[in-house]
Specification:
Layout (H helix, E strand, L loop, with lengths): L4 H37 L5 H8 L2 H21 L8 H7 L6 H21 L1 H11 L9 H25 L7 H37 L13 E11 L4 E10 L2 E7 L8 E8 L4 E4 L8 E5 L4 E5 L3 H8 L1
Antiparallel strand pairs: 1-2, 1-7, 2-3, 3-4, 5-6, 6-7
Length: 314
C-alpha cells in the first residue's frame, strides 16, 4: 500500500521538527549554557551580552522540545486511528508569536558576536571550540542561529502542501485550513517585525547623516527618496551640487559637508510636503529641470537625466 501523500508530509513535518529541536538544543543547552558559564567567571564577556545574543532562545527551545515535538510524535504514532495534525498545529500557532522577539534581535545578535570575538579572544576561542564539535557539523554559531528565523516560513510551506494533498472528505480538512491561516498570520507578523526593524534602522542611519537635528528625528517618518541634485541659480547662470531627502511629510534640501565630522549633510531648507507644488520646466540651457514650490520658497533643480527627473517629480 502506498502511503497517502498527506501522511508523507506530516512525517516530514515530524522529522524536520526532530532535527530542529536538536538544533535548538545545541543553541540553548550548549552554546548559550557554556558561554553563560564562562561569562560568570568574568573573564570572557559580560553576562548581559550573552543574554542579548541569545534573546529568548530558551523559551523557544522549551516550547518545541517539551510541548510541540511530543504532541506531534504522539499524533504520528496514532495516525492509522486518527489521521490528523491540524488541531495540534492550531495549539502551536499562538506560541510562534514569541519568534517576533528572536527575529527582531537577530541582526543585533550577529553584530555582537562579531564585535566581541574581536574584543575578547577567550570568547572567540570558546565559540571556535564548540564549533569544532561533531554536533556542529562544521557550521558556525551564526549559521545555527539562522534556523529559528527560517522555521516559521518552513511550517507555512509544509502545511500549505499538506492542505493541498488532503482528500476533500478528510476529517482534518477544517482544522488544517484554520491552522494554515493562523501560521500565515504569524509569518506575516514576523515579516512585518523584520520590515519595521529595517525601516527604523535605515531611518536612524539617515538621521545620523543629517546630524540628528531634533526637529527632524521622528520614528514615524518614511524616507521615500534621496539623492544628489543640482541647484540652478538663474542670477548667475550656474549650478551647484546639493542633496535631497524626501520624506512622507517634508523635503530636506541639504548641502554636502566638506569636512564630514559627525554629519554628512547640513540641512539648508526644510519644506513641508503639505501644500508643495512640483512642475517640469522646459529650459534649453538647463535640461531636466523642475520647480519645487513650498509656502515660502521655490527651488529650481536639475536632475542628471530625464528618468531621474521623472522619478523625483513622481
Amino acid at each position: 500500500m502506498q502511503e497517502p501523500e498527506e501522511k508523507k508530509i506530516a512525517l516530514e513535518l515530524l522529522e524536520t521538527e526532530q532535527a530542529y529541536v536538536n538544533r535548538l538544543h545545541l543553541l540553548d543547552q550548549v552554546f548559550y549554557t557554556e558561554l553563560m558559564k564562562e561569562a560568570k567567571t568574568g573573564k570572557t564577556v559580560p553576562e548581559e551580552v550573552v543574554k542579548m545574543i541569545f534573546s529568548n532562545i530558551s523559551s523557544i527551545y522549551q516550547f518545541h522540545s517539551e510541548f510541540f515535538l511530543p504532541e506531534l510524535q504522539e499524533r504520528m504514532e496514532d495516525w492509522n486511528c486518527n489521521p490528523r495534525i491540524g488541531d495540534v498545529i492550531q495549539k502551536l500557532a499562538p506560541f510562534l508569536k514569541m519568534y517576533g522577539e528572536y527575529v527582531r534581535n537577530f541582526d543585533k545578535a550577529v553584530e555582537l558576536i562579531t564585535a566581541w570575538s574581536e574584543k575578547s579572544p577567550p570568547f572567540q576561542e570558546l565559540i571556535a571550540d564548540i564549533q569544532k564539535r561533531k554536533v556542529c557539523a562544521n557550521l558556525t554559531l551564526q549559521h545555527h542561529m539562522l534556523e529559528p528565523v527560517q522555521r516559521i516560513p518552513r511550517y507555512e510551506l509544509l502545511l500549505k502542501d499538506y492542505v493541498r494533498k488532503l482528500p476533500p472528505e478528510s476529517p482534518d480538512r477544517g482544522d488544517a485550513e484554520k491552522a494554515l491561516e493562523m501560521i500565515f498570520m504569524v509569518a506575516k507578523h514576523s515579516n512585518a517585525a523584520i520590515a519595521e526593524m529595517e525601516r527604523l534602522q535605515n531611518l536612524w542611519g539617515v538621521y545620523q547623516r543629517l546630524g540628528l537635528e531634533d526637529d527632524i528625528v521622528d520614528p514615524s517618518n518614511q524616507l521615500i527618496k534621496e539623492g544628489p541634485i543640482q541647484k540652478v541659480s538663474t542670477r548667475n547662470n550656474s549650478t551647484s551640487e546639493k542633496y535631497l531627502f524626501l520624506f512622507n511629510n517634508m523635503l530636506l534640501y541639504c548641502v554636502p559637508k566638506v569636512i564630514q565630522v559627525g554629519a554628512e549633510f547640513q540641512v539648508h531648507l526644510r519644506m513641508d510636503v503639505d501644500g508643495m507644488k512640483v512642475r517640469e520646466l522646459n529650459d534649453t540651457q538647463f535640461p531636466h529641470t523642475f520647480l519645487v514650490s513650498g509656502k515660502r520658497r521655490t527651488l529650481q533643480l536639475q536632475a542628471r537625466s530625464q528618468e531621474e527627473m521623472d522619478a523625483w517629480i513622481k
